[in-house]
Amino acid sequence: DAKTTQPPSMDCAEGRAANLPCNHSTISGNEYVYWYRQIHSQGPQYIIHGLKNNETNEMASLIITEDRKSSTLILPHATLRDTAVYYCIVIGTYKYIFGTGTRLKVLA
Amino acid sequence: GAVVSQHPSRVICKSGTSVKIECRSLDFQATTMFWYRQFPKQSLMLMATSNEGSKATYEQGVEKDKFLINHASLTLSTLTVTSAHPEDSSFYICSASKIGGRARTGELFFGEGSRLTVL
C-alpha cells in the first residue's frame, strides 16, 4: 500500500480552521484516503475518507487534489478537544500501514 | 458505527508469564483483523494480519512464536504474548475490517487498546 507523508506537528488557535496536509504520491487508482485521529492512550477514531472527490461530514472536510497525490484534512473550527495525532492512511486491498502522523495542538 | 472491543484494557504481569488479549467485533463480522503495537509517542506499528480460519501473516521482525494470534471466529481474534518481558510492555491495538453490508470499502474499526506492563 502507498506510503503517506505528514508534517510531524502543527499548532492551531481554538476556533480557527486546522488544515492538515498529507502526501501520498504513490497512491493507486483503487486506493482510498482515510483519516483517523488518536487521542492519548485510545484507539484511533475514524474521521473521514475519500477516493477522488472532496468529502465533508460533521467532523471535517477532505480535499483531494486532482492527481490524488495529496490531500488536506480540514477541521473548520478547531476546539481544544481536537488536540490529537492525526493519521492519513491509504487503504487498498491488503496492508494498512500508518505513517508517523501529525500531532495537532489546539491552543486556547 | 461498528464497534470493536478489546479486553483487558490494562494488564500488569510478571516477567516470564503469558498474557492473552481479546479483540471482538460486536456488531459485524470481520474476516480480517489487524494487530498493532504502539510505543510512547510513536505511531502504530502493524504486527500481523489475522484472517479467520487461517494462520496469521506476521510483519517482518515480529516473532510469531512470541506473539500468538488466533482468529477462530468471525468476531474474535486473540493475541497472546508468550513469556513476556519488560521490553514487551506496550499499547496493543486491534482493528477489524468490515466486509459487506453497509461497510465503506476498506474501513478499519479500532478497539480501545490494551496497555501491557511487564514487571
Explain this structure to me?
The complex is a heterodimer of chains A (108) and B (119). Chain A is mostly beta strands and 108 residues long. Chain A contains no helices and 9 strands. Chain A is globular. The model of chain A has no long low-confidence stretch (mean pLDDT 92). Chain B has 119 residues and is mainly β. Chain B is built from no helices and 11 strands. In chain B, strands 2, 4, 5, 6, 9, 10 and 11 form a 7-stranded mixed sheet that branches. Chain B has a 4-stranded antiparallel sheet with strand order 1-3-8-7, with no helix packed on it. In chain B, a hairpin with a 2-residue loop joins strand 7 (67-73) and strand 8 (76-81). The model of chain B has no long low-confidence stretch (mean pLDDT 89). Chains A and B meet through strand 3, strand 4 and strand 8 of A and strand 5, strand 9 and strand 10 of B.
